Amino acid sequence: MSDSLPVDGIVTFAEGLPGFESQRAFVVVASSEMAPFTILRGVGADGPSFVTIDPRLVDPAYPTTLDRVDLARLKAAGDEPLLWLAIIAAREDGSFTANLRAPVVINPGAMCGIQIVAVESPYRVDHPLPMV
Question: What predicted TM-score, i.e. pTM, was given to this entire model?
Answer without folding.
Answer: 0.91
